[in-house]
Amino acid sequence: MALKSALQPRSKLPDVGTTIFSVIGQLSAQHNAINLSQGAPDFSCDPLLVAGVTRAMQQGHNQYASMTGYPPLRAALADKVETLYGQRYDAASEVLVTASASEGLFAAIAGLVHPGDEVIFFEPAFDSYAPMVRLQGATAIGLKLQAGDFSINWDELAATITPRTRMIIINTPHNPSSQVLSAADLDRLALMLRNTDIIVLSDEVYEHILFDGRRHHGMATHPELAARSVIVSSFGKTFHVTGWRVGYLLAPAALMEEVVKVHQFMMFAADTPMQVAFADYLQQPENYLGLGEFYQRKRDLLASLLQDSPFTLLPSAGSFFMLASFKDFSDETDAEMVKRLIVDYGVATIPLSAFYTDGTDNKLIRLSFAKDEATLKAGARALCQVKPR
Ligand code: GLN
After folding, report:
1. pLDDT at site 250
2. In-domain check, residue 257
3. How does residue 1 score in pLDDT terms, banded at 50, 70 and 90?
4. I need a surface site. Which of 206, 324, 330, 334 has the fewest CB within 10 A?
5. Which residues span the domain enclosing 163?
6. What pTM value is reported for the model?
7. Is 217 exposed, middle or buried (CB count within 10 Å of its CB: 0-12, 13-18, 19+)?
8. Boundary of a domain, candidates 252, 283, 314
């Protein structure tokens, strides 16, 4: 029985409910549905990584890590980023290990955005961005990515920037559209921001998951943008350990200093044994460089299994998501469709409207293919049975 309280706090986020990932997760569990919804692998990580954490614990790495991160891990990250993207970050002042990419996003926004500032982001968007901005007393301005290919409308962005614009949130590879930015996109952004003091917060947690030979065009590949960016990365997405909650940030020291001030009082430090294990594991680049091919095989398997389904698949360029349209065979809202898929067909997906603050319904659902072959096959089999309505 719930505790009775006469207190009714004034909500800071009155229009925010439980995140879609938990809502669908619960409904999906109730109906024992095959889970193609949450972007979390249902297969094991490398046993060497588990052995590394176990060893770290046994060797006594069980107390607070250094506040900004286990130093050998920060050093390994600075080396990795320089090798892959060309930008050198100072391991002592420009790399911060966080307790998840989500913590990194929050610390960056809380440390750098002031009340009254404007923060521009692009929808569909991961559902945490706008609430994190609003908690700072700032205005979150969602611009819609363009229908069809989910590209940024640069002219609209230029027209939306004001003297109050403090930050622009970028996400590439993009969740949920699975589109990626190009080198030309980065040039365009850099030009637009030249002579402004706008910060780029760049969510790049899927940086190693790009398909069909594409390269990741993150902010660390572009010196001018790197100089005004906070980059957010994730160990969970890269190493199939989303439950370990470890991520990291990269930013010029002047920006990082303000972000660290928040991190030190929110988390102080990320979990120590995981950091020790990651520092070691990063020494073998093959542990993350094959990730694009690994997920491309899953993407292609799911797409081929869905050929006979009534859904129309949109191309997926990166991340472990794919969008599927039902506009040709049903007038249901995407939320109704997702519910019917769970209840009647036993397969869970995410409605795209959950990624829009205004609930835009494009008759699209998001499928996650971070799943083992058996799950993908079972999920596809269910989706192939869906009847028009
Ligand atoms: N990033 C993952 C997704 O989009 C998981 C999000 C979550 O469960 N909080 O599915």
Report:
1. 99
2. yes
3. confident
4. 330
5. 47-283
6. 0.97
7. buried
8. 283
Q: Is residue 202 located within the same domain as residue 329?
A: no
Q: How far is the CA of 365 from the centre of ligand 1 (A)?
A: 14
Number of domains composing the chain? 2
Alpha helices in the chain (DSSP H): 20-30, 47-58, 71-85, 101-112, 129-134, 154-160, 183-193, 223-226, 235-239, 253-266, 272-281, 286-289, 291-305, 334-345, 373-384
Residue 220 is given by DSSP the state G
Closest among 232, 253, 273, 290 to 77, alpha carbons compared: 232
| Nearest ligand 1 atom, CA 102 | 9
Give the Å distance between the CA of 127 and the centre of ligand 1: 9
Segment 97-119 shows an average pLDDT of 98
Asked whether residue 180 is domain-assigned, the answer is yes
Domain check: are 335 and 193 in the same one?
A: no
Same-domain pairing of 275 and 326 = no
Rounded Cα gap, residues 112 and 160, in angstroms: 20
Q: State the CATH number of the domain containing residue 220.
A: 3.40.640.10
Residue 389 resides in a domain: no
What is the band of 389 on the pLDDT scale with cuts at 50, 70, 90? confident
Q: Cα angle at 371 between 368 and 376, to 5 degrees? A: 85
- Over range 184-190, report the average pLDDT: 98
One domain, residues 191 and 298: no
pLDDT band at 377 (very low <50, low <70, confident <90, very high): very high
User: Strand 165-171 relative to strand 312-313: parallel, antiparallel, unpaired?
Assistant: unpaired
- How close is the Cα of 299 to the center of ligand 1, in Å? 18
Is any ligand 1 atom within 6 A of the Cβ of residue 379? no
Residue 203's pLDDT band (boundaries 50, 70, 90)? very high
350 and 308 in one domain?
Answer: yes
